[in-house]
Structures are given as C-alpha cells and as structure tokens.
C-alpha cells in the first residue's frame, strides 16, 4: 500500500499565523518554508512563482521540470508536487492563495484559467521583456504584502487579479506554439494526459 500523500494548508507555510489567512508571499529575503517539499504533497492553495536566479527541479504528477532564471511556475491544488532539488542560490518570488481569496470580491473563478488545469504545462520560460514585467508586478505585490494598510487584503487581491490576467495571454501564446505537433506527438501527449490524470486520481 502506498503512503498517504499529505495535503498542506496555506496556514502551514508560515509560523506564526499568517497576516492574511488566504494569501501568502515569499521573496528572495524570506525565510524558507520548513515543510518537507522534497517529498510528494498536495496543497489546498494555488501558487504562482517566478525564478530570479539559481536552479531547481520540480515534479508535477509524472512531469519533471527544470527551473532556472525567468521560469514561471503555475501550480494548482489539483496536482501532486515535489521539489527533489533546489540550489542553495535559488531566488524566487512566490505568491500562494486560495480560491476563496480570489473569489471574495465576486466574478473571478480560478478554474477559468487554462494554466491551472491538471494537464497544463506548469513551468515555462518567459522572454526577457515579459519576465521583467512579471517580476516588477510580483515585486509590487511583495511591497504591498509587507506594508500595513487598512485595505491591505483588497489591494493584494486586486494585484493578484492583475497578475492572473497578465499571465493568461503569455500562457496562451506559449501553449499555442507548443500545440504545433505531428500526429505521433499528439498521440503521445494525449497518452501522457491520460496517465497523469489516472496517477493523480489514484494517489
């Protein structure tokens, strides 16, 4: 019998309690999480990460991704994740949030974003100009996350909405270019999706 895969809650990412229970931010100068993420796990939260420097390896279901500078990481609660390697000089921006946090103001549904689907491509490298734009936006989110404000949660939610909508066309363009495949590649892709879906369901 396989070991039960733990499901980490957003509140476990930081001690003491989070300033905002449905949103959490890690920057290059943040203390690293103490969770054993080198082992397979699930989460109740979404994550958008952007690598500034260093390298890492990420497994999502049965896919393995090599992460380096300008890599954008898009992870949902629907997948099994594992970080078997992370270099000592790894630096990144990472924002974690729940569906409830995003939907609190009404209207926006995370399931409408293709990059959060189980079979999405969860890591891809951005061109320099686009990478700089996303890094600037994440840097602005970090500043607002760390600063006291009467409407801090609302500001963070609005900036995260902007981030999601900035990423959507970038992912769409990347996904469209990757969609030009031969018949054998298409068959292999469909088979991989089927295996990933079965793996995630069984685990």
Word description of this protein:
This protein has 203 residues and is an alpha+beta fold. It has a single domain (7-202), classed as Jelly Rolls. The chain has helices at 99-103, 128-146, 152-178, 183-202; strands spanning 7-8, 23-26, 42-43, 46-53, 56-60, 63-67, 71-75, 81-86, 91-97, 123-125. Strands 2-9-4-7-10 form a five-stranded antiparallel β-sheet. Strands 6-5-8 form a three-stranded antiparallel β-sheet, with no helix packed on it. Strands 1-3 form a two-stranded parallel ribbon. The longest helix has 27 residues, at 152-178. The protein is globular. The N and C termini lie close together (11 Å). The mean pLDDT is 87.
What's this, in brief?
This protein has 203 residues and is an alpha+beta fold.
Explain the layout of strands and helices.
Blueprint: E1 7-8, E2 23-26, E3 42-43, E4 46-53, E5 56-60, E6 63-67, E7 71-75, E8 81-86, E9 91-97, H1 99-103, E10 123-125, H2 128-146, H3 152-178, H4 183-202
